[in-house]
């Protein structure tokens, strides 16, 4: 009798965050991604709940890439008893190491601030995990090469394939008892300024497919022209341009685009450009360390970084704030959920001459989404701040494939999969992607709910 495989949807099911999929075979339990839930309070609280599976029984974790919503729960998993290996490509693990240390530090600082200022309902407020937990998770990292099959046992093997999105990002092909499982991870876009085009799977018996932008096509806009116009409009009014940015790939891409404007003489050489993201600055090192994973030459990298002032201390942050001249500030986090950008917004968001330029996906419940939706005030550090700044977004800068690009990514799968699971999307995106895949390929996609268990007979 052929073995039965159970699939547990532990995250990014019906939502765009917290990616976790447990594959239970007769001999092994494998977790694909181990992300933290972000966004609205109801989702964040899921991070504190007991997993519906025993962490100590999970054999291995396989990471598709190093973003927080795909790796940020790892220290908590270790804290809950996980003792296995954590696999990923070398740049993915480098990025995950940076992100986990940063996440642990932020959580420790947030808990300390909440206890000091008394705005938490928990007494005392505690971090989800601490720096020690993060280091224990990092010690379990095992890097793997692209394209090479890794044997787990006689019936299980997997390999990583290039997927764009961010440096190190992959999709996973897994051979389980003769059936091919494909986990898309986050799918990148063709013609990216820094990264190569994603590869495509040609076979999938079981397909797990992200649907972040399953309901729309990215607006085709001249990014450099839009960025130049925003910079001119802000600085001509004596204002500061604040760009909340994801630390990995997005911060580097923004630096690259601003450097391109500088090279063309379209912004003044005297205009300060500031990267105030310790994580973003550390992520820069992965580009020089892994030259085969991106398009930048070493000289381009050097010239680009020479144009940007990288902040190295909190004291320096306040020196920048106290400097009244117009400037461009790139700071984390990309959805304004935390990080150094809050310090700048605290000082600048109530000024009409300020521009806040969003540069990526803004999940439901995040401050970035509130700003995008026209909020007149936002709350952080336990207080409300009036929004007088102009808020705009760079529409074409997303690192996620849009609906057309998602369909194209799946276009080389010759035979109809036995099952297609749509994940990593908000309800409307998931349903539109379901309809499009059905109409285009005559597939029958299914949208799993959080904590749903699916049993597959091989």
Account of the 3D structure:
This protein is an alpha/beta fold. The chain has two domains: 4-216 and 399-457, Ribonuclease Z/Hydroxyacylglutathione hydrolase-like (Metallo-beta-lactamase, Chain A, 4-Layer Sandwich); 223-397, Rossmann fold. Helices cover 31% and strands 21% of the residues. It has helices spanning 41-44, 68-71, 74-79, 90-117, 131-138, 223-236, 250-263, 278-289, 298-306, 314-322, 341-348, 367-372, 403-409, 427-441, and strands at 4-9, 21-24, 29-32, 60-62, 85-89, 141-144, 150-153, 156-162, 170-176, 179-183, 206-210, 240-244, 273-276, 309-310, 327-331, 355-358, 377-380, 383-386, 390-393, 419-423, 453-457. The strands form four sheets. It has a seven-stranded mixed sheet. It has a six-stranded mixed sheet with strand order 7-8-9-10-11-20, with helices on one face. Strand 8 and strand 9 (170-176) form a beta hairpin. It is globular and about 75 Å long.
């Amino acid at each position: 009798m052929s073995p039965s495989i159970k699939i547990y949807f532990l995250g990014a099911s019906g939502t765009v965050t917290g990616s976790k999929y447990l594959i239970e075979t007769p001999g092994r339990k494998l977790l694909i991604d181990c992300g933290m839930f972000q966004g609205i309070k109801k989702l964040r609280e899921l991070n504190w709940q007991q997993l519906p599976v025993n962490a100590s029984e999970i054999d291995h974790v396989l990471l598709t890439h190093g973003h927080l919503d795909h790796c940020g729960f790892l220290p908590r998993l270790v804290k809950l008893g996980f003792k296995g290996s954590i696999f990923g490509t070398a740049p993915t693990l480098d990025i995950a190491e940076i992100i986990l240390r940063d996440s642990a530090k932020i959580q420790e600082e947030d808990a300390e601030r909440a206890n000091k200022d008394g705005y938490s309902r928990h007494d005392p407020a505690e971090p989800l995990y601490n720096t020690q937990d993060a280091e224990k998770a990092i010690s379990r990292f095992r890097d793997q090469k692209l394209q090479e099959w890794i044997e787990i046992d006689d019936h299980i093997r997997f390999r990583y394939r290039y997927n764009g999105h961010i440096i190190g990002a992959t999709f996973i092909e897994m051979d389980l008892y003769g059936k091919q499982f494909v986990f898309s991870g986050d799918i990148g876009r063709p013609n990216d300024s820094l990264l190569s085009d994603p590869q495509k799977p040609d076979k999938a018996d079981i397909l797990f497919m992200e649907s972040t932008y399953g309901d729309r096509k990215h607006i085709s806009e001249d990014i450099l022209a839009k960025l130049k116009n925003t910079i001119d409009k802000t600085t001509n009014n004596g204002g500061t341009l604040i760009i909340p940015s994801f630390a990995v790939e997005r911060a580097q891409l923004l630096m690259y685009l601003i450097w391109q404007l500088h090279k063309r003489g379209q912004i003044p050489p005297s205009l300060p450009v500031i990267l105030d993201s310790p994580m973003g600055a550390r992520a820069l090192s992965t580009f020089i360390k892994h030259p085969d994973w991106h398009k930048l030459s070493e000289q381009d990298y050097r010239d680009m970084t020479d144009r940007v002032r990288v902040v190295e201390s909190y004291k320096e942050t306040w020196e920048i704030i106290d400097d009244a001249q117009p400037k461009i500030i790139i700071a984390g986090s990309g959805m304004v959920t935390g990080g150094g950008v809050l310090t700048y917004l605290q000082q600048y968001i109530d000024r009409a001459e300020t521009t806040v330029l969003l540069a990526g996906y803004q999940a439901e419940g995040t401050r970035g989404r509130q700003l995008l939706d026209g909020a007149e005030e936002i709350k952080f550090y336990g207080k409300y701040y009036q929004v007088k700044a102009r808020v705009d977004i760079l529409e074409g800068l997303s690192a996620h494939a849009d609906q057309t690009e998602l369909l194209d990514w799946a276009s080389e799968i010759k035979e109809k999969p036995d099952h297609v699971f749509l994940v990593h999307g908000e309800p409307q995106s998931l349903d539109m992607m379901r309809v499009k895949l059905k109409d285009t390929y005559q597939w029958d996609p299914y949208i799993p709910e959080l904590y749903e268990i699916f049993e597959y007979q091989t």
